[in-house]
Amino acid sequence: MAKTFRLDILAVDKSFCGVECEHLIFPSLDGSRGVLAGHEPMICCLSAGEIQFLCNGEWKRAVVSDGFIEIMPDFVKLFADSIESPEEIDLIRAEAAKQRAEERLRQQLSTKQYIHTQAALKRAMARIKGASRK
Asked: What does pLDDT average to over the chain?
């Protein structure tokens, strides 16, 4: 059995990477999940947070927004609205976005506004966490 699988990470506006991967860890709606070569086929929702992937014995990280992931025994395709490496994240901007979202949550919002604001807060917190580990 192969020890690696093809990992393609795609955002709405760019292809983040395409590599041979040994292990992938990603955030899902019900917690963190891991993938190794030969994984059973599945499609899963991706939550905003940090992904980690092992390529050539080196762990790499990226911060993703909500999306979905297709897992097959020999490849994985991860699709997200946005993807950033920790080096790309402007920590000051992420902190400001977090504060704006927290302030909006204190206000009376419609259900739609509340859901959008929660997503913005979650995304900002994921970016801060990812940038803090540089």
From this structure: 87
Nearest residue to 44 (alpha-carbon basis) of 24, 15, 17: 24
What is the model's pLDDT at position 54?
95
To the question of pTM greater than 0.90 for the whole model, the response is no
Q: Which helix (H) or strand (E) holds 83?
A: strand 83-84
Domains and CATH numbers, the chain: 5-86 (2.60.15.10), 90-132 (1.20.5.440)
Q: Nearest to residue 128, comparing CAs of 107, 106, 104, 102?
A: 102
3-state SS, residue 95:
helix
Give all strands (DSSP E) within 85-134, no chain letters. Answer: none
pLDDT single digits (tens) 102-119: 888 778 678 777 777 778
User: How many angstroms separate the Cα of 16 from the Cα of each of 8, 19, 29, 63, 113?
Assistant: 8, 10, 22, 11, 30
Structure-block tokens of residue 69: 């992931």
Q: Are strands 23-28 and 49-55 parallel, antiparallel or unpaired?
A: antiparallel
